[in-house]
Amino acid sequence: SPLHGRDLTGQSLTIDATTPLDTYSLNAASVLTVDGAQTGAIQSSQSTLNILSGTTTAPTSNAIRLVDSQATIGNANITSATQTGLLLGRLTVGSIARISDSQISGGFAGARASHRSQLIIQRSQITATRPNGVGLRLLAGSANVTDNSVITGQTAGIRMAQESPTVNVPALTLDNSHVVGVNGPAIAVGGGTEGTLQGS
Predict the structure, then answer these.
(1) Which of the four, 25, 44, 47, 138, has the lowest number of CB atoms within 10 Å?
(2) Taking the complete model, does pTM exceed 0.90, yes or no?
(3) Is 22 exposed, middle or buried (0-12, 13-18, 19+ CB in 10 A)?
């Protein structure tokens, strides 16, 4: 991708408000810590992303993409104008992201999680902005949404689907949080999909 500006391979790096705007690609157990920095798109493969605070903006791509990676995201503003704000994918083991006190938005989806991937969302807003956007897409992934978080989509707040008939079902837990479908259902389940939903 032409958005890759700085490649980290087996390296650790901390960036802050004095660091020039750049994009990042993390590989081979790299660790990127964002402490008040502004960044472009971040992609992580088998690595770790820590956002203590900061802003990530991607006009034409996913803002943050994790593949078999883990992320801890706090006090962040993450935006993809056309694609997904935070995408969790896998080659083998899946990804996990812990999000708190943050705003994540994308045109297509605020956040997406594939099979074996998990989102833990606290006191945060996850939003899709385009007419066909879904706030949170669970493609056999799981999400735990708590502590006054808000998930908002245009066609649906949350859409749950299986990756395939033989792959694990999506799972969603809602606790003291809100899901809004502006022009459609709060929660939509794909045809033929079995999922689990717990709420309080």
Answers:
(1) 25
(2) yes
(3) middle
